[in-house]
From TrEMBL:
Claim: Protease is one of the keywords in the record: no
SUPFAM superfamilies xref list: Phosphotyrosine protein phosphatases I
Residue intervals of the Phosphotyrosine protein phosphatase I domain: 4-142
Organism placement in taxonomy: Bacteria, Pseudomonadati, Pseudomonadota, Betaproteobacteria, Burkholderiales
Entry protein name: Protein-tyrosine-phosphatase
One GO term (biological process): response to arsenic-containing substance
Keyword set, alphabetical order: Arsenical resistance
Pfam family for this entry, one: LMWPc
Naturally occurring in which organism (per UniProt): Polynucleobacter hirudinilacicola
UniProt cross-references to PANTHER family, sorted A to Z: ARSENATE REDUCTASE
Keyword Translocase: no
Transmembrane segments: none
Domain of life of the native organism: Bacteria
């Protein structure tokens, strides 16, 4: 079975895109391989996002905030899908992606901006994780070899 590479993009690559990477990589279908990056990566992965990745069974040793430029290099894995998960990254000029992957925007509010108790912060991260999980589940259930940009955008509007 072919595995499809999915790159999740967010400005700092510290929370939403990290959760997307973990969800795709640990999806029970085995069809997806997740990656994540950002336009201006931060110094570290948000600890709440790292905890979610760990709970999903993702190897947290692999988690790091990285620039999207590494995925535009000639020796980078070829992406099948590029998904922006924050509004800032969706509006930025992205590098040229080899292979012309299908792209879409699945916007979510930044859970790392939530102020409050530890419980409130965890709830914000879990809300993003649940929303991304629904969309990743829909993506994995589709005939990926026939998927186009319009189909991928419909996942956003139907979830």
């Amino acid at each position: 079975m072919k595995q499809y590479n999915v790159l999740f993009l967010c400005t700092h690559n510290s929370a939403r895109s990290i959760i997307g990477e973990a969800l795709a990589s640990t999806h029970p279908s085995g069809k997806l391989r997740g990656f994540s990056a950002g336009s201006t990566p931060g110094a570290s992965v948000n600890p709440y996002a790292a905890q979610i990745a760990k709970e999903l069974g993702f190897d947290t040793f692999l988690l790091k905030s990285k620039s999207w430029d590494v995925f535009a290099l000639p020796d980078a894995p070829k992406m099948d899908f590029i998904i922006t998960v924050c509004d800032n990254a969706a509006g930025e000029v992205c590098p040229h992606w080899p292979g012309q992957p299908v792209s879409a925007h699945w916007g979510f509010p930044d859970p790392s901006q939530v102020q409050g108790t530890d419980m409130e912060k965890k709830a914000a991260f879990n809300e993003v994780m649940n929303g991304l999980k629904k969309r990743v589940d829909i993506l994995a259930a589709m005939p990926l070899e026939k998927l186009d940009a319009m189909s991928l955008k419909e996942i956003h509007s139907n979830s």
